[in-house]
Amino acid sequence: MIEIKNIHKIFNAGKANQVNAVNGISLDVTAGEFVVIVGANGSGKTTLLDMIAGSVLPNSGRIEIEGQNVTKLPDYRRSQWIARVFQNPMSGTASDLSILDNFRLAAIRTRPKGLTIGINETFKNQVKEKIATLGMGLENKIEQPMGTLSGGQRQALTLLMSVMDSCKVLLLDEPTAALDPRSAQLVMRTADELIKDYKLTAILITHNLKDAFNYGNRIILMGEGLIIKDLDAQRKAGLKQNDLFDWFG
Amino acid sequence: MDFYLGALLQGLCYSAIALGIYISMKIFNIPDITTDGSYTLGGVVTAILLTHHQPAYIILPAVIIAGAVAGALTGIIHTKLKINALLAGILVMTALYSVNLVLMGTSNLPLINVQSLFTLVHIAADANHNTFWILIFFVVILTLLIGYLLKTDFGIAMRATGNSESMIRSLGVNTDRMKIIGLALANALTAVSGYLISQLQGFTDISMGIGIVILGLGSVIIAETLINWLRITSVWLSLLLVLAGAIVFQMVLAITLDIGVDANLLKLVTAVFVLLIVSLPRITFKAK
Fold first, then answer.
1. How far is the C-alpha of B79 from the C-alpha of B180, rounded, in Å?
2. Where are the alpha helices (DSSP H) in chain B?
3. Which residue of B has its CA nearest to A77?
4. Cα–Cα distance between B146 and B23 in angstroms, integer?
5. Which of A52, A105, A160, A161 to mutate to probe the B interface, most B CBs <10 Å?
């Protein structure tokens, strides 16, 4: 699904504050894989994810999605495959727009946004049904601005939004970092269910080693802009939670 | 009373600029100073075409295109050259001053003995009433168009662009292109105000746009204060309040002149009035 060949990213090249964020990473993610990436701050996890999403373009190397070379494609053109959940709940949703408007945009993620009114009763009911599956009671508040919701509610809705339109790859960049433990658990469980139900290829960045242990069928440890460990489903299953803590020892 | 009717007519002319500023400032979050230049540009294009006896159906589209090009330029400078939006607007506005002057060939072009929009159609016998109904018709059409646009999928994407850029990019929208279109639209509306005012006052002057942005800002701020105060989320109601803002603004200026304040102090009064509206909610908040 995603093929990455020897990508590099250097920020502020040649200046005093030069950062070698990613130093030659090659990675193949097959369809249906749920990859968890862990690593210390500054290990290049987010830069790698941004390069897959297209919001950061690599200095060198090649990225393919479904066999198509997307290396130079900007983020808004990779949305035909990719949906994202950001660390900051504000980044994944528009605060001043209603829940309904947010969902409308998500429902046409892979299509052009035309000059017709797309929100009608059928669409409203469709959104209500979707939101009801969360069991948060938000289905009756779809006209409310997104900004009136809590961070956990917004992250859960962002997840739902990602499957409103055809989605192949789901990128999760520390989606629970800003949430309290209960909301975090709910968001992770929702993510896991959606990934399984919709057979998504997913990449999750997390600092929560419990989540890294519980979720996904492949785990990668990054450090200094490189992949240090890469364990497939079988080896991940054989892993103990303490082993993960030892990686950071 | 005619004095206040005049203010009302002006307010209606300025409602296009208010809608334009509403789009650039409230929807795209871009403080767009191009306004001063594109407003005059609208007046200049109108004056030139009218004095060359061009038909009415050419003039309005020409004004809209001229304003849109000016706005798109600001948008391109801002997004492609990564220049601060405020500076991009100032650059285009400054350049437009010369462009306007060269286009007109003079600093003031009177529109005497030409067939203007307000003499073209006769609805009421009284000239002022006639103008009033034509303007009302104009404003209603504009508001319906903008309101519809904001309700469409494209419009939602526009609103999201000013709100959460990372989100709307990840949902497949080219935000640079969206901002260029938005600024083009905002300045096209601004130029339409120039088009209306020129014909209302019967001349186009090179300095008519100086400080005009404050008019739009003031109208939007009046509307915004009410929108926040009454917690309004409806697009239609918001647009209506923006229109009301433009008219209230002119009325306040009319009252100021009526009670005998020196006309030279008008810009000062304008600034103080806008400051008052912006700060009033904060002052009352502090008192609690």
1. 8
2. 2-21, 35-51, 56-80, 85-104, 117-120, 127-151, 153-161, 165-170, 175-201, 213-229, 235-258, 266-287
3. B172
4. 9
5. A105
Chain A residues whose CB is inside 8 A of the B178 CB are none
Whether the predicted pLDDT of A78 surpasses 80: yes
CA-based nearest distance B11→chain A, Å: 28
Give me the half-sphere count of Cα atoms (radius 13 Å) on the Cβ side of residue A133. 17
Judge contact between A190 and A156, C-beta under 8 A. Answer: yes
Of A75, A78, A95, the C-alpha closest to A157 is: A95
Domain boundaries, chain A: 2-247
Among candidate residues B186, B142, B138, the one with its CA nearest the CA of residue B42: B186
Structure token pair of residue A188: 């992770």
State the DSSP string of A19-86.
EEEEEEEEEEE-TT-EEEEEE-TTSSHHHHHHHHHTSS--SEEEEEETTEE-TT--HHHHTTTEEEE-
> Which pLDDT score is estimated for A172?
96
- Considering the entire predicted model, what is its pTM? 0.91
Distances (CA, A) of B212 to A32, A215, B13, B21, B70: 58, 58, 12, 11, 16
What is the least distance, in Å, from the CA of A158 to any CA of chain B? 10
How many Å lie between the alpha carbon of A86 and the closest alpha carbon of chain B? 9
Inspect the interface and report whether the beta carbons of A109 and B175 lie closer than 8 Å: no
User: Chain A within 8 Å of B148 (Cβ-Cβ)?
Assistant: yes
Query: Among the CATH numbers 1.25.40, 3.40.470, 1.10.3470, 1.10.1470, which is that of B2-287?
Result: 1.10.3470
> For residue A110, which residues of chain B lie inside 8 Å, CB to CB?
172
CB A124 within 8 Å of CB A151 = no
Q: Point out the residue among A79, A90, A143 whose CB comes nearest to the CB of B171.
A: A79
Least CB–CB distance from B172: residue in A86, A102, A110: A110
Cβ B235 vs Cβ B151: under 8 Å: yes
CA distance A49 to chain B (A): 13
Is residue B228 within 8 angstroms of chain A, CB to CB? no
Q: Which residue of A has its CA nearest to B149?
A: A115
Between CA B249 and CA B270 the distance in angstroms is 9
Average pLDDT over residues A159-182: 93
Please give the DSSP secondary-structure letter assigned to residue B89: H
Question: Is pLDDT at A90 greater than 60 in this prediction?
Answer: yes
Query: What mean pLDDT, rounded, does chain B reach?
Result: 92
Please state, in angstroms and rounded to a whole number, the distance separating the CA atoms of residues A29 and A247.
Answer: 22
| CATH classification for the domain delimited by A2-247, as one of 2.60.40.10, 3.40.50.300, 1.10.357.10, 3.90.226.10 | 3.40.50.300
